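Entry 14. Structure prediction run on the chain below.
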Amino acid sequence: MPEVDDKVRAALFERLVLPYADGAYNLARWLTRNEADADDVMQDALLRAYRFVDGFSGDNPRAWLLSIVRNTCFTWLRRNRPQEMVSLGDGDGGGEGLGTIVPLWASEPMAADTQLERQADRALLDRLIEAMPADGREVLVLRELEELSYKDIAEITGLPIGTVMSRLSRARQRLLADWQRAAARGRPA
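Output returned:
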């Protein structure tokens, strides 16, 4: 009988978890800011997901997996880099945010100098996001890069939807301010 359980668990894991592994790795990579650390976090997170996949009873396996990855990342960060666990705060920030982050690449061919400028902009954007506190970076990556709804982000983070919106607003404001400061300094690549 344990063989059947393992086969069922493996089939559930393959169907429910593996389709979302790339997005989960993306979140781990942005939160840890390091590919090797993201690999370690993903290994732990995927083992946890495998162990408990037969107990999944929700309707959103992507949010479930991203919750596991998020919690594993923050546990790893608290243990290995506690200085990175600075909070943006949870008060209602209000105000104007950056809005949706648009891709810095184009679908049409472009001149070499334009392509180099876009690559420099993308590298700067990556550095600015990486420099953010983990809780701001988390909601920004989940919303803008993983394109999750506020509801899904709230489910993943265990936060009220209003807190998700506040954190996202503050993260966008910080990103915009950092971008403007970099532009004023001539956008070092």
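The chain has two domains: 2-83, 112-184.
Filed with the rest of this week's runs.
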